[in-house]
Amino acid sequence: MKSYNHSAVEKKWQKKWGKSAYKTQDKKKGAENFYFLTEFPYPSGNLHVGHWYAFAVPDILARYLRMTGKNVLYPIGFDAFGLPAENAALQHGLNPHTWTYENIAYMRKQFISMGASFDWSREITTCDPAYYKWTQWLFLKLYERGLVYRKKTEVNWCPKDKTVLANEQVKDEKCERCGTSVEKRKMEQWNIKITEYAERLLSDLDVLDCPEEIKIAQRNWIGKSEGAEIEFKIHPTPTLPKGKGVSVKVFTTRPDTLFGVSFIALAPSHPFAKDAKNLRAINPANNEEVPVFVADYVVEDYGTGAVMGVPAHDERDREFALKNNIPVKNSELAPKEVFEKFAQKTTTYKLHDWVVSRQRYWGTPIPLIHCEKCEYQPVPEKDLPVLLPPIKDYVPTGDGRSPLAKARKWAEVKCPACGGKAERETDTLDTFVDSSWYFLRYTDPKNKKEFASRKKMGAWLPVDFYSGGAEHTTMHLLYSRFWHKALFDLGLVSDKEPYVRRMNRGLILGSDGQKMSKSRGNVIDPDEEVKQVGADTVRIYLAFIGPYNETGSYPWDKGGIAGIRRFLERVWRLQDKIHPPPRKPSAPPSKGELRNSSLEGGVSRRETEDVLLHQTIKKVGEDIIAMKFNTAISALMVLSKAFESEKAGAREDFAIFLQLLAPFAPHIAEELWHENNFKGSVHKAPWPTYDEAKTREASVTIVIQVNGKIRGSFFAPRGVTEADAFARAEALPEAAARLSGKQIKKRFFVKDRLVSFVTT
Question: How many CB atoms lie within 10 A of CB 71?
């Protein structure tokens, strides 16, 4: 038998499959549609191991679902607008368009090399005018609905990238993209009223099938607080004279602590902040005067931007009071009738409106025109898309405007309302707008008349299963849920939620246990790994490294990937044990057909091995559905070991093994399928069924140890006696060879699990 040449095998089948092997019909007779989605990648230049973890591992589930009869849509595309392309253009003198599309072409080849079963016919790219035309169209629908507005807002400004960041894009007061410390600025910005959907975003979490940590993260980010507003009158001062009726409204979740107030704290941006040192507030419950301070821990956009300081009942108030020599006033809680008299019940949220304008070039142009007479007007639908013009200078202006402001021929237009002189909006949209609806376009990517037809969306939506990164829980995931609800209210989609089930994946670390980065020198190049050990090995290793259904962190292990390679080499050699295949291709076992009691050629086989086969079929299928790929692979390893121990093997059983292996290692499974003359493709063969009665553990696997090292195993009936177990073990060649000529000093027996020998 020729040796396992992974490079030849994988190139052969990738060429045969091409880009059309997994083209998905919108309707397939007798098959239920299943929309399986992974977050589409940014075309950063080349795939890293994290991309493989994100796409090659979920492909196991996509392939399994097809084999079980589902009509699976597993699409791919590129989230192609954004800062990295523009920064590369500035650094290397490249055009962002050229940089982006060259990267896409390279990454497309890499995706094909992983053997993922994408439907390439539905590929989308967000920087393609055919796509962003509909991003602009949908944005204008929200604008017409009153969900988009322009306002001078305190924003997060990245001085390095020279653009505004949404709150969700700031981590520890630094830019999530480049790590630069963020500044606060007041700027005119376009906002979307995501806060109008805060309550629905919260309440509808209850119907979603997703891990509790996702729900908790979104609940915390939205930050609902039920409390009350209480009005404190301000004592007259030279700056605030008597008779003006000036007061400060505070928000509190504990109106019953009103008697314990010893100060009022204002956000630094509060209108009264500049006069705070001269102000005294009057407690409405007891008419006591308390001082007014400015405190950094009070947030402008949360509640009223003012809180009542109650050091006896709040830790932050206590810290502030002790620092500023404010007395901690211990008092009784106010009776219900007292605080209800002065408190007006209200609900507030931490969630802010979504700032969507960016002062950069490489993004979707905002389809609005400003006229001094008519203010802002939408670009007429017939003029969409507003194309991004080619420019030479990508450096943002010194006054915080986009580089597009320099493109005067593009920017200067006539007002669509009055025909007078006007100017296009020169900011571009946040890339999270592009990704808030991309999964809709996958259902109808070639449609030139609408973003997607209702019929095609109806065939696939909502998304059955969505896999993505935990870092997007309060960014993309929250934004896309909001966007979908807004489209539902506009009558453009039929579902209130875009996804039925969501799961966050874990993180692959470098071999040093640290997050992979070029600066640390611990990045794993998947192309090099594929060259050395093969795509199937990399796929199985990443699936085996830890449970995919849990958000863990898993370091790359060279020894581990070498072990997977050895497993596939053993699988390759299994065919040596199979009876010679027929000259003409023969059909694999039909669904449900298994060899139960004998091997071909009349060789007797143990009932326990038949049980193992049925158990493996059941376990692998159940583990794939649960995305416990690591334990499914363990089961396949056990089954392959059992096959290795046989002198000869049944073609039917080997076919079943290849069907079970196919989702994990698509290339080698397909090659062995054809080498052994089974008809068709292993990936189109039905998933094997099992006999439930035969999965019950009437038998067990007992491990043999000699001097503390595992030297083999054997099957035995559950409850086998100690004497019988030792006799069976000593009779096995692998144990007999280790015991021959040695004196057995001790024997140990663990019922149904282990026999152990200690020799001289």
Answer: 20
Same domain (yes/no): 410, 379: yes
CB neighbour class for 236 (10 Å; exposed up to 12, middle 13-18, buried from 19): middle
| CATH number of the domain to which 735 belongs | 3.10.20.590
Kindly state the DSSP code that residue 209 receives in the 8-state scheme.
B
Torsion of CA 684, 120, 36, 592, to 10 degrees: 0
Q: What b-and-e string marks burial along 97-135, b requiring 16 or more CB atoms within 10 Å of the CB?
A: eebbbebbeebbebbbbbbbbbbbebbbbbbbeebbbbb
Same domain flag for 247 and 310: yes
Structural domain includes residue 678: no
Average pLDDT score over residue span 715-744: 85
**Domain end marker among 328, 348, 368:** 348
Residue 325 makes CB contacts below 8 A (sequence gap 6+) with none
User: Residue 553 domain-assigned?
Assistant: no
Q: What does the angle CA 310 – CA 314 – CA 319 come to, to the nearest 5 degrees? A: 90
Rounded CA separation 535/49 (Å): 12
> Are 337 and 359 found together in one domain?
no
Q: Do 245 and 324 fall into the same domain?
A: yes
233 in Cβ contact with 247 (< 8 Å): yes
- Domain-ending residue, one of 432, 459, 494: 432
Q: Measure the CA–CA gap between 566 and 536, rounded to whole angstroms.
A: 12
Whole-number Cα distances in Å, 263 to 234, 282, 730: 12, 10, 84
171/229 same-domain check: no
Predicted confidence band of residue 152 (pLDDT cuts 50, 70, 90): confident
Mean pLDDT (whole number) for 281-287: 94
The boundaries of the domain holding residue 150 are 136-193+354-432
d(CA 196, CA 180): 31
pLDDT over threshold 90, residue 377: yes
Maximal CA-CA distance, the chain: 110
Note whether 210 and 467 are within 8 A (CB): no
Render pLDDT for 744-754 as a digit per residue (tens, 0 to 9).
999 999 998 89
Return all residues near 646 (Cβ < 8 A) that are at least 6 apart: 577, 599, 605, 609
Distance CA 696, CA 414 (A): 77
For 357, the token pair is: 């304008």
Number of domains forming the structure of the chain: 3
Same domain assignment for residues 152 and 262: no
How far from 587 is each of 368, 380, 542, 655, 674, CA to CA, in Å? 62, 60, 32, 10, 11
Whether 300 and 403 map to the same domain: the answer is: no
Q: Are residues 236 and 301 in the same domain?
A: yes
Q: Single out the residue of 33, 97, 96 nearest to residue 70, CA to CA.
A: 33
Residue 77 in any domain: the answer is no
Q: Is residue 253 part of a domain?
A: yes
Alpha helices in 626-732 (DSSP H): 629-644, 651-661, 666-675, 692-695, 722-731
> Is the CB of residue 553 less than 8 Å from the CB of residue 471?
no
CA distances from 491 to 181, 359, 445, 730 (A): 42, 32, 20, 74
521: left (phi over 0), alpha (psi -120 to 50) or beta: left
